[in-house]
Amino acid sequence: MSAARARRSGPAPGGRRSTGRPLTHAASRPVPAGSRSGAGSRPEARRPGRRPPRSTAAAGTPRRPLFTGRAVLLGGLVLLLALTLAGPVRQFLAGRAELTRLAAEGTALDRRIEDLQDQLERQGDPAFVAREARERLTYVLPGDRLLVVVDGDAVEGDAGTVPEPDDGGLPWYDALLQSVAEADGDEEPNE
Fold first, then answer.
1. Would you say residue 94 has pLDDT above 90?
2. CB 158 within 8 A of CB 143
3. Distance (Å, rounded) from C-alpha 70 to C-alpha 44?
4. CB neighbours of 36 closer than 8 A, spacing ≥ 6?
5. Which keywords belong to this entry (predicted)?
6. What is the pLDDT of residue 86?
7. Distances from the Cα of 25 to the Cαs of 22, 28, 29, 36, in angstroms?
8. Nearest CA-CA partner of 130 in 119, 141, 143
9. For the segment 5-22, what is each residue's pLDDT rounded down to a tens digit?
10. What 3-state class would DSSP assign to 143?
């Protein structure tokens, strides 16, 4: 307890205060005999502008390297992480593009379904069926007159009857051979 009171009571003998810490290595070095003077024990006012310019080369401190070991390690880890994630990110983007394409294809198919359902409803209408039979298949109802245009000549006939050809009653195969012979410029074949 007396040491604690001595610390609190005032400065230690010799004019220095004790901090209770052990001496550092700098304080334990011997001081050369000629360098000790009373000027070192008191701080003096510094004069501004008298300080020598700072230079790292003059002080002898080594230059700091551009890349430290930690920076190289961090850069390597970032590069490894980027290479590791490149494949999954590419697959993710390709999957999103595929989903977009499939969604557009699904929308087009939905429109096609609607069009086909409308067409199916139209074909269920008897008036539509009758009109298509008249236009596409040249069907006529009993009592209607049929007008067929063949090679620019209008030919009339009764409903449900087809006019007789004017080829002289030749069978179809003879008429075919005759037309081929006419196309070649040959004389007409003998019958």
1. yes
2. no
3. 43
4. none
5. Cell cycle, Cell division, Membrane, Transmembrane, Transmembrane helix
6. 94
7. 10, 5, 7, 18
8. 141
9. 555 555 555 555 666 666
10. coil
Q: What is the full DSSP assignment across 24-66?
A: PTTTTSPPPGGG--GGGTS--PPPTT-SPPP-HHHHTPPPPPS
Tokens of 121: 């409803």
The two three-digit tokens of residue 185, written as one number: 């410029």
For 66-80, write each residue's pLDDT tens digit.
888 899 999 999 999
Alpha helix segments (H runs only) across the chain: 2-9, 56-59, 69-123, 126-137, 172-184
Nearest to 141 by CA among 153, 152, 129, 151: 129
pTM for the model? 0.35
**All structural domains of the chain with their residue ranges:** 68-139
